[in-house]
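Lecture 7 notes: from sequence to structure.
We start with the chain below.
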Amino acid sequence: SAGPALRSGLAGLKVLLLNVSRAVTRDVLITFSPTEGPRMLNITEKGKAGKIQLPREIFRSLSSQTVRMVVTVLNIQQLGMFEEVNQTGQVLDDTVVGITVGETSISGLQDPVQLTFAHGQLPHGVTPQCVFWDPSKGTAGGWNSSGCVMQLGDKGTVCSCDHLTFFTLLLNPSLDRSTAQALMAVATAGCGVAMTFSIFTIAFCIFLRCRFRSEETLCINLGLHMNLMGSLFLLNLAFLLNSGLSSGTQPGTCKVLGGLTHYCLLCCFTWMALEGCHLYLLFVKVLGTYIHHYLVKLCLVGWGFPTLVVGVAGVIGSYGEYSVQTTDHQLIAHLCWITSKYLLVHYITNCGYFGLIILFNMAVFGVVTQKSCCLQGTGAAQGDRKAWKVALVVVGLFCLLGATWVLAFLTHDTSSVPMLYLFTILNSLQGIFIFIWLVILYYPKTKETTGSLSHIIRHDKTITVSQD
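Predicted structure tokens for the same chain:
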């Protein structure tokens, strides 16, 4: 049985202390509200407040005859507690409920503790999630949903959790069906525009290579840009084919289509990395134009390495039908992609691979920027005042190629609606951006720009030799 209850409260903190016998014959019921805090609940009592149901097995497994149970209701806005870094969801009524029994940590319950968070109709565009405070998450703790199962009702949400700690109901911004369809429409239209400008860019690069074929550095730069634009063209084409043909396709065809889409994405990432490598060699090592069959070797890496990765992923059966759903589990579309069973392949080959690439490219960006600043005080910059401008244009192009994809790390789930819009729009317009950058960089003063780059490289090589 339960002993006398002791209630106390401060501003933003309300506590219920209860002595419970291990011989208790029924579950312990407690009601709580943000204003009144926790109190004992009669089994026949009905109300609109929240409810906690602690299974009697918790107390029967304890060694002592009587155990102290503490239930706390906290207003985290008043107390300034339980604030997660970069939290996107909102805590229901700013209320967190803490439950402790005895002085030991209780977890792995076969009969879970049930918390009912009372609420009316939830606002449009949010999805509830049962969470608890995990001190080990991140640097200062964060919300975690492991071990909790949610059951959404008309007057409240029931959270069934297999451990005791601090709980709340987190209201996450959701991706509804209309928003998802709008995103798909933007992405589809953007792919068509990106493909068009990719063709324009490749044609422009071919024109410049034919006109200035004697400029070896220029031809290598344009060759790199052509391959990058080719990979972007194929990626957009693969997405359009995937979104248009994936529904109702045969399993074998879907695997091939999924592998093709993955291959095009990896090619795009790899050519971004090669752009960074080329900038490093061009501005720091000054070796790019002296490597035998330099562009051919880059092509072997840019188009060959993704083939190996996709081949291994295909052998283990990673590709198949993947369902894209909203946060309330409404089906948006079927895609041929890496299946949910092999999400580790996605995290390693896509997230991990691109993470390493963007870190490398950011390091190159810093080195190239520092190099350009140093050249400002040398004869190279003094002899041609546009050398600094040229360096900024090249580095700006490099930043543009990687910056839009960094937003992928901010769209970790479908609740990041603004980031999803930004990511979709910017990447859809990437082909236009690159075309504009290349026109500014190489036209109409192509010879002057090329001469500036060559002058910087020759000057830097002279300094390096004299230092040796």
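Points to note: The longest helix spans residues 177-211. The CA atoms of residues 157 and 238 lie 42 Å apart.
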